[in-house]
Amino acid sequence: MAKDPTGSHPGRPRSEQSRSAVLRATSELIHEVGLRAMTTDQIASRSGVSKATIYKWWPNKYGVAVEAFLSEMATKSPDPDTGSAEEDFRRALRGLIRFYRSKSGRAYAQLIGEAQYDPQIRVELRDQLIGPRRELMRAILDRGVERGELRPDVDPEVAIDLIFGPAMYRLVGGHAPLDRRAADAIVDAAMRGLAGCD
């Protein structure tokens, strides 16, 4: 992930066009050669952005990958804000599962594995990718509580884990389907504990 999340480097504006080229090249390379085999030299060559410039904006290839994943996740799983917390959770999780089922999703699972051995990757993953996804779910949760749809006494972090956790477990474990039906079943089960009382 870039050192400055606003998109600029101190004393030197970050070119949005160059940033987009780097992220696009990174996504293509992840799909073609895989996360581990991909190199910063390949990203630089394909994007037309110098390796030195890439290292000014990201700590390593995994940092670039995190931002590329974040961009794709935001596209596949935006905040639906339908007026119903249950429907919002359902749509957000369906979108996340679409990402998990893609080639990028499989590479994302590899990144989770790398994070278990590299503290820097773990911090990037937590702060720049997992964090924003949890903020989205927190926004849905807060709206639901305000409307009286969801219980206000449930720990928000636990509530978010109830919805995110099963999908992540299925992604890394591969023991059960990851599809639209799974997303709906997960939300249905979670809502039994989260729904407010009439």
Give the CA-CA distance, first to last residue.
44 Å
CATH-defined topology of the largest domain: Tetracycline Repressor, domain 2
Reading the helices and strands in chain order gives EEHHHHHHHHH
CATH class of the largest domain: Mainly Alpha
CATH architecture of the largest domain: Orthogonal Bundle
CATH homologous superfamily grouping of the largest domain: Tetracycline Repressor, domain 2
Poorly predicted ranges (pLDDT <50, ≥5 residues)? 1-12
Global shape: elongated
* Tally of individual helices: 9
The structural domain count equals 2
Category from helices, strands and their pairing: mainly alpha
Strand order of the largest sheet: 1-2
Mean pLDDT reading: 88
Proportion of residues in helical segments? over 70%
Strand content: under 5%
> Could you tell me the number of beta strands?
2
The whole-angstrom Rg is 18 Å
